[in-house]
# Entry
Amino acid sequence: MLSVEQPGLFLEQLFNVTQKMGNERDLDRQLQLVVDAARRFASAEGGAVYLLDKTKRFLLPKVKQGKMFSSKSMTWNPIPLETGSQGRFSDVRAYCALTGQLVNIADIYQYTGFDFSEFYDNDKLLGTRTRSLLAIPLSGSETGSNGVLLLFNCVENGEGETESFSTHIEPLIRGFASIASISISNNQLINTNEVLLKQQEELNQTLIIENKELKGRLFKSLMLDDVIGRSEAMKKVFMLIEKVANSTATVLLNGETGTGKELIAATIHRNSPVRTGQFVAQNCAAFPPDLLESEMFGYRKGAFSGATNNKKGLFEVANNGTLFLDEIGEMPLELQSKLLRVLQEGEIRPIGGVDTIKVNVRVIAATNRMLDKEVSEGRFREDLYYRLNVFPIKLPPLRERKEDLPALINYFIDKYSKQYDKEIKRIDSAAMDLLHRYPFPGNVRELQNIIERAVIMVGKGNVFDMQCLSLDLGENSDGQFTEDDFLNACDSLKDKVSAYEAKLLKDALEANHGNQSLTAKQLGLSRRTLVDKLSKHKLRRMDTFSME
# Structure
């Protein structure tokens, strides 16, 4: 330990370690230098660094040194920056980060101002007894609080004595922490800029094409397969697909329910550098949080009851391919942080696993929500939103691309005619006009369902006419279907009840943007009952429609 009587030696060593920290570009190695130097300056047996996340809501553990961290069972979790029920800070690290106050405690077993149960539990695991603790804010004069440097001393088997940290070293160690904070902030800024520049350079490679050349070859180089659309709204979508397809940038698709987000995601994959890998789709609203986590990251045998074998998660399955995460706005906050780590670090840790697994996966996310509003209301992580929103594509609703309606109608008639062995000779003009007048709140998915039923209803004359359609606009001046329209399309009481139930379910789902849990709650149903009813009425896949 360097005392105040050795200022020359302290300054010399401070100068040397400052140079090393400033030259180190790897953040983890830089933080190891910070902890190692702080331990030597304060004669501390162990130390750790916690840094604030981008949302400034959590302290994230970064590096650790000392016996206290030798057990794999030791907790090493993010620390929320919040007060307890009485308005007081229960965690010394959160207090230190938010107040900027240095905390020097001689014996944590005799101090009741903070909750040290985590330290007590770790002491039991290791047979040690943590005594003195020193928490120093990592704050420079201009950078603000960047995190916390934690130093501690302990004795083995709870026996013996250990010195507390002298108050004489507090100014010295705080000065060192301020220098370290500035160096860490500079390193983070440089690393962030390098990532952004790399992403920008990657996207620029797809934007170099001259407008004239692009217009001349638009759609010719894309494998569009079953994507239907020649409207101006869809041409804009195709142009964006062409620009982003040759990169591996993250794409965020935004559009109403039923606009074909999964089909567009698959199209991007087919035209991308990872087209030889798998395209894996997952609806984030289809599973409860715990099952969704195991589905995405996999698990190891024995991780929980029923885990009798190792299971690969979707990130492993989609390695060197594309993972499509539909309804990303439904993902719970605790799982969002794990997804963010995958996007940033390119690695996953299966549930119950110890080692991380490197993955190379292109992520395409989709939502029918306004994620920026979800962020402002605290339901979606801001840092994850910016990480996903690298290349946004807005998908137009069907009412804004009515020019595509004839092509879509003919496509679905042809598809279901073959599927149900029907020969459609012609489409009645009145039926076509009826479809043109309808606003299609359920978009292309709703059109598909209407056409499928109509093809089944086609009679002996093989004419697609008004009688085949399940709904009748009649004389409605606003062009909207009424409840009577649903009921008049059915003959028996059983069919009328079934049709009305289907309408109620469909309307409730659309009002809740496809959120099944909220819909079940509003309708007074269990989620399992709602899922069964959706399956019965062929509404189960409302949020994962594909225009195939």
User: Anything to note?
Assistant: Residues 170-204 form the longest helix (35 residues).
